Amino acid sequence: MDWLNLTGKTYIVTGGSSGIGAAIVTELINNGAQVINADLKAGEFKAEKLTFIQTDVTSREQIQTLIQTILTKFGKIDGLVNNAGINLPRLLVDSQQPASQYELDETEFNKMFAVNVKSMYLMSQAVGHELVKNRGGVIVNMSSEAGLEGSQGQSAYSATKGAINGFTRSWAKELGTSNVRVVGVAPGIMEATGLRTPSYEEALAYTRNISVETLRAGYKSTGTTPMGRSGKLSEVADLVNYLLSDRASYITGVTINVAGGKSRG
């Protein structure tokens, strides 16, 4: 039984070549949807219902080309998953080594806000025009637990995700009258992906004044997670697929935390 009824629907996933994005793409295809992966590099996953279109999602011109290509080939767009993102752990003030490579600078700040925030605005506006015209559709914005709670050593990243939560609430109010839903998804600590690189771990460990080994051990810590484990990428993908479907037709304007009940208390 096709419970979600996504067969024949056409969805764009930004940053769909790796990590959570690849998991979302895979599950959408498994559910019968036509998927367009808008990323800088193609992923390893190949499927008949998957189309890769190389796109810099911070470029309005490339996004316009993306939309026109999709409309020409498939004739419609049913939804968008704003997944593309970047995280560069940095301190606001490095008290040990002022102006070190791990102290936030404007170049890194601008890069994170361009990829994480500007791209969502540009993509959502371009796709939003089509959804409003068609009187229906869904935009899913990938946020993070860090955007809800903040995160030591990741203040700029957390700020971008907080901005995304604001987009979700506001756009839901603006687009709801056109039967367009906007929903956020905020994963917590997830299983390892190719995005958890040695350079990322070294930077995050430095900002928290701990060793990389201690940081890695923390991934497996269950002290603040009632479920007692890290999340699976497939669990995030399942939620996104549900939210894109009409089964979630009365859910909009909220950001759903997928973190196993994790808290700081």
Question: How would you portray this structure in words?
Answer:
The chain is of the alpha/beta class and 265 residues long. The chain has a single domain (10-254), classed as Rossmann fold, CATH 3.40.50.720. 42% of the residues lie in helices and 14% in strands. The chain contains eight helices and seven strands, in the order βαββαβαβααβαααβ. The chain has a seven-stranded parallel beta sheet, with helices on both faces. Helix 1 (19-30) links the parallel strand 1 (10-14) and strand 2. Helix 2 (60-74) runs parallel beside helix 3 and helix 3 (106-133) runs parallel beside helix 5 (155-175). The longest helix is centred in the middle third of the chain and has 28 residues, at 106-133. The chain is globular, with a radius of gyration of 18 Å. The termini are far apart. The model has no long low-confidence stretch (mean pLDDT 93). Pfam families: adh_short. Belongs to the short-chain dehydrogenases/reductases (SDR) family. This is SDR family oxidoreductase. Residues 9-192 form the Ketoreductase domain. Keywords: Oxidoreductase.
